[in-house]
Amino acid sequence: MRQKSSSNGFIEHSLMGVLSFIKTSLFAEEYALKRGFMQSLDQRIKTLSFVLLIIATLLTKNILVVFCLYLFCLFLAAISKIGLGFFLKRTWVFIPLFSLFVALPALFSNFTPGAELISFKIAGFPLVITRPGVLTVLLFVLRVAAAVSFAVLLSITTRHFDLLKVLRIFGIPQVFVMTLGVCYRYIYLLIGIIENTYLAIKSRVGSVVHYKRGQQIVGWNIAFLWVRSCRLNEDVYKAMLSRGYSGQPYVLDDFRTRLKDWLWLAFTGVILIWIIRFFH
Question: E strand or H helix at 93, and its extent?
Answer without folding.
Answer: none
